[in-house]
Specification:
This protein is α+β, with helices and mostly antiparallel strands. Helix content is about 40%, strand content about 10%. The longest helix has about 45 residues, at about 150-195.
Amino acid sequence: YEHWIALLEQYTSPDHPVTARFTGLDLYWAGRLDVADDSSAEIIAATTPQAWLMPAPYRTNPQDSLLFRVSAEDTRGQYGVVAVTSDSEGGGRLLVVSDSDFLSSRLIQSTQSGYNLVFLENAVQWLGNDEDLLRIRTRAARDLRLNNLEDPAAKRAVVLFSQVLNIYAIPAIVVLVGIIRFLRRRRRASGGDRK
């Protein structure tokens, strides 16, 4: 469903503790975040450069996928979706995610991934000034999703390979194994009749 955004590790800040060793973040209805040039805020997670903005009226019906891209070429670009800032004097920290539903049970059940909860744990530890524990926790974390492919040709090749494997090869192997077992049993049964 094209409105949902799956953030990729290569478009996050590897230097920030929240997104170092980023495992993923799924967003439902994300908007874009703009950071003022004179502020101390920084974008730590962004969309791919292939993202676009949807103007009003917003179309959310998955059956209208062609209408999603009405203004895609006019607004195509990379957009910030997670920003952070720190107050060095008071020690306060702020993290903003451009989607209020990213922690909803509906999203977590729809995507069936724990990436958002892992991101929340990292964010809470950073907001609580517990960066040492955060570094230990994220040391072994990594994104295991297969949607990290940016090259369209490589993505098409992987999709084609998985379709051929799952739709044709695996069923053909199952049928072939069934035929071989059937023929072996038949041969054994006919060999027993001769004796």
